[in-house]
Amino acid sequence: MSLRRARQDLDHITSWILLVVTTATIVTGLVVHLWDLHEFSWHTYAGYAMIAAVIVHLTLNSRQLFAYSSFRLRRLFGPRSGPPRTPARKPSRAPVGAAATTKSVLLSRRGLVGLTLGGTAGFLMGGGVARARPTLSEGNDLGVTYHHWSSDPGAIDAVGALRNLGRQPPPYKSYDVRTVVLERPSLAGGLTTEEAILRRQSVRAYSAEPISGAELSRVLLMTGGHTAGGRRSHPSSGALYPIETYVVVHNVEDVAPGVYHYGPERHVLHELRSGDFREYVVRHGLNQGFLGECAAVVYLTMIFQRMRFKYGERSYRYGVIEAGHLGQNLYLAATSLGLGACAVGAYDDRGINDLLGVDGVEEVSVYLLSLGRTG
Q: Is the pLDDT of residue 84 over 60?
C-alpha cells in the first residue's frame, strides 16, 4: 500500500512540475521570439525540463493510457452484438467512522493533452530546444550578426498574428506637388536581352550630351515600372514592393534639373526639388566625380513596414535583394539603349536621405546608380 501511495504522490508532483515547466516554456518561447533573444538559455532549460516531466508522467500513467486506448479501440472496431457490458467495480473501502470520498485526479487526460499542445506551441514559438544556433566569434560585424540571427524564418511565420508588427502601409507614395508625365516609351529597337547581358558593364565616364526624356522614361519603366497585366518589372517577396525610386536629374531633355520621385502606378515624376544638385550629389557620394557628370542619378530607397508587418526581421534581407533586382534591370535597360550605368553603394546615407526627403528611419536609401551617355 505504501508503494502505491508513493507512486500516486510522485504522479501528482510530476503533474505540477509539468504544469510549471510547460508554462515556463511557453513564456520563454514568446520572450525569445518577440525580443529576438535566440541565445536565451532559460527557454532551452525549460524545454528540457518539460520533456523530462512528460516522460515521467507518461511512464507513471502508461498502464491507464494503454487500458483506455484498448477500451476505445474495442468500442470502435470490436463486435457490436449483445447488450453492453458494465465492468464490475471493486467496492471502495472507506476509513472507519468517516464518509467515503471520491478519488481526486490532479491532471485529467484532457488536461494532459492541453498541456502537451501548449508546450508544443511554446517550442515552435521559441524555435525548439534543439534548434542549432551558430556561435559568433568576437570581431564579427553587425552584418554577420544580423545574418545569423535572421537565418531561420522559424515556425512562427505560421502563427505570425501573435506578433504585433504593425499594419500594412499603402503600396504607393503620394505627393501633392507638380508632376511630370512621362510618355509611354516605345519598346522597339535596342539590344536583345542576351546582347545586353553580355555587354553590360559599369561605366564611370560620361559625355556632356544629354539623354532624352524618352530614354529616361524607358529606363524607369524597365527598372521598376508597371508592365503588361498590371505586373511590375521586377520580382518582390509577397508582391509587397518596398523599394521606391527617385531620380536626381542633371541633364535630361524635356525634364528640368531637380529631385524627383518616380510614381510607377501612373508613370510620372513627382518634382520634390528644383535646381542643380550636382555638387551636393558628388559631395555626399564620397566625392565620386562621375555622379555629377552623368545625365541623372537614380536612387533606390526601402520602406521597411511594407514587408515588416509580414516577414519581421527577414524583411530587410528581402528588401535589399529586391533593390538588386531593380539595379540589374537598370543596367540592362541602359545597355540596351547604348547608355552607361554604374551602381554605387558607398555614400553618405544621412545626406542622401535629406536630399530625397526621407526620414532615414522608416524609409532609407539603400542603393544608387548613375545613368548617362557614355564618354
A: no
Reduced to 3 states, what is the DSSP secondary structure of residue 328? helix
Q: The cell 530625397 sits on which residue?
A: 356
**CA dihedral sign, ordered 56, 59, 61, 65:** positive
Counts for the chain of helices (H) and strands (E), in that order: 12, 7
Other C-beta atoms lying within 10 Å of the C-beta of residue 63: 9
For residues 182-208, one letter each, b for 16 or more C-beta atoms within 10 angstroms of the residue's C-beta and e for the rest, the string is: beebeeeebbeeeebeeebeebbebee
91 vs 98: CA distance, rounded Å: 16
* Contact indicator for 369, 298 with CB cutoff of 8 Å: yes
Identity of residue 161: A
Q: Pinpoint the alpha helices (H) of the chain.
A: 2-34, 41-60, 62-77, 109-126, 142-149, 193-199, 213-224, 278-284, 290-293, 305-311, 315-336, 349-356
- CA-CA distance, 225 to 107, in Å (whole number)? 61
What pLDDT digit, counting tens, does each position of 11-52 carry?
Answer: 778 888 888 888 888 888 777 665 555 556 777 888 888 888
The residue type of 140 is: N
Closest CA to 336 of 233, 189, 157: 189
Res 103: pLDDT: 47
Per-residue pLDDT at 125: 54
Contact 330, 344 (CB under 8 A): no
What's the confidence (pLDDT) of residue 319? 97
Q: Which of 211, 216, 224 is nearest to 185 (CA)?
A: 216
What percentage of the chain carries pLDDT values higher than 70?
A: 77
Give the Cα separation of 124 and 116 in Å (integer): 12
What integer pLDDT is reported at residue 56 of this predicted model? 85
